[in-house]
Amino acid sequence: MSLRAFSQTSLNLFAQRKLADVIQIYLQDAQHRLNRQLNQCAQHHKQVYLDDFGLIPVYSLQHNPAHFQGTQAPIPALCGRIFSWRLQLDATCLPIREFFVQVGTGNRDNHCQLVLEIYQNNGLVARAALAGDNLQDNTWAKFTLDRALSAGQYDCHLVSPDSDNGNNTLFLWLTFPEKTLDAKLEHYQYPEADAESLQQRLDTLRNTPQFSVLLLALDKSSDYITCCLESIAKQIYPDWEIHLVHDETHHAVSQAFAKRFPKQVYLYPQFRPIPHAHLYQQLLDAVHTDYVVLLPVEDMLGIDALLAVAELLEIQQAEMIYSDDDCIDNTGAHSAPAFKPDWSPDWLKSANYCGNFAVYRTKTLQRAGGFSEFDDYPSLCWDVALRVSEQTTEIAHIPQILHHRRLVETPLPNVKVVQSALDRENLAAYAQLDEATQSVRVRYPVKAQSLVSIIIPTRDLAPVLLRCLSSLQQFTQYPHWEIVVVDNGSIEATTQTILNYYQILWGERFQVVRDDGEFNFSRLVNRGVQAARGDYILLLNNDTELLNPKNWLELMLGYAQLPYMGCVGAKLLYGDDTIQHAGVLCGVGGLANHGHRYFHVSQQGYLNRLAVVSNYSAVTGACLLVSREHWQQVGGFDEQLAVAFNDVDFCLKLSALGFRHVVLPQVLFYHHESRSRGLEITPEKQQRLAQEQSLMQQRWGASLQQDPFYNPHLTRTGEDFALAESSPYYI
Questions:
Q1: Under DSSP, is residue 367 helix (H, G, I), strand (E, B) or coil?
Q2: In the chain, what's the furthest Cα-to-Cα distance?
Q3: Closest among 164, 75, 147 to 577, alpha carbons compared
Q4: Residue 708, preceding bond cis, omega within 30 degrees?
Q5: pLDDT tens digits for range 443-500
Q6: Which of 186, 260, 354, 685 has the highest local Cβ count within 10 Å?
Q7: Rg of the chain in Å (alpha carbons)
Q8: Contact assessment for residue 554 and residue 452, using Cβ atoms and an 8 Å cutoff
Q9: Residue 378 and residue 359: Cα distance in Å, rounded?
């Protein structure tokens, strides 16, 4: 909470007295939290092991780090939090005495310090300290150790022992040593398909659609091209043909392959530069098959790829089909599998999660306009996926590894691809490149300055409520909002003081609805919505604290106003900067749970999902924005679900009506979960939870175990997107 903001507000004498009370409550809470942290530090010396996250604060040892290029994340160096990592100096290394660490001050005067201690075999061997007074924001600070380090293995500890988690706090800029940190999956293997079983599957097919594979053999390795062609030739499914454009360099390879399959391979020599989009369009115009296949000429298909597509087409109509994939290196080793969700249109506007292998109905691709001006294959493939998705909803995902991509340098996404799609929607939206996450951020402008009603249920815990309200006051840029506090039987005088103060400060924009009944979150939010005046409803827990950005409400409202959008959520963090909520996964850990829970805020998640706008089956009611129209369509929250699963139930009801939900990772809140109501540890609460679980199972049944936004090969026992032991890809 900003005291300066209070001083700038013109209040009457009564309000000023209330303000003094509020400030006293705030300071008492801050001191209480600080004392609690100091006690915890004294007892536990809480450590964050950066090696667990693949992060390092030290970039350079005795070298100028000024030219560093890499992904970075600012992390507060809180009081008592020890950042630890392992350092290995080899025998060829000269003695090291200087460390460089990139620090931040928040553009404030900081009087705390940073202390670096180096341990070997559990013994302290070197130490250095820096005073915050001498540090400048976003600069490289140099630690000079009191003893040089020779070859060996060391444990490094970095702490700011006298910071206060407030105005006297230094920051660290942590770096990612590799881009694919969160994309790795343990226990993965790619099993070779059994030819006999594949033949049996082929023999059961009643329909045999024809596939034309479109390939450009230009400016690529001949070895890669040969491997690609051979992977098609080995398909167990026989009804394929290849339309291959080749340059002079690959003329011999192409001719030799065509002679082996004269009725299935069509060559198009091209010895002068022509835009690739034009070449693909020429191939599309030449084919007469039911479906076309897009595939990078350096990649490979699994032997069962076209068979799996044909099997899918036997049981359902599909205009666009994509699959899971993995990486293959020059030795044939497989790694980095991408186990994707089913159709996720908002994610596709952030990144081409579908990948570079896709099958399209020929007529649908032609109706979508074929190939446009984008010349590089990733942009061209992404553009086609977006164009086709505008023409049809018959889009299918095959949860099998059918495509093997090469380990090549991935270019930054072409923001023009997304902007073209947005322009076709005619919603005045615009796309921006986010280089740090290698994705695109879409901004939908607020169409109408709609009133947003923020519903906050609470019961006492005045400092918690104060922190929530003051963060909204300080960081909310959007002007058209009101707050409805649903007071569930508060009895403390300090709570009434805060409510009185904000009533005076905000007038008609702030109201309190009293409900002294037994705690029932669904009933409380329903009461709040009844009293609210807004066209949009934002459910917000009283134990949340807005972090950034100031335009958070415009960002969420821009998405909520889309005609196909149901609920819009945000990323919520625990107090230790780990994920509490970033989208709900149905069927995980029981009925539903939060994906990526306990991942660090600096991590980008599996397939980058913590960094991009992505679709989920549900978002948490702790921060949920929805239109009043949608709220009324499904009757609000079900009061039979008093505490648990009411938000999941609400979202699933909207999904059943054809609406979809997103989480905006750039909108950040702290969530000090369950502060008001406590944990589910009493027999009464456990019985109530069992009843709510039973109701959800009766209502939604098998759909809870088939989350379309969570791949069936991923674990159902944890929230970390690990590979399931039941998967055929698990070793």
A1: helix
A2: 94
A3: 75
A4: no
A5: 999 988 899 999 999 999 899 999 999 999 988 999 999 999 999 999 999 999 999 9
A6: 354
A7: 29
A8: no
A9: 15
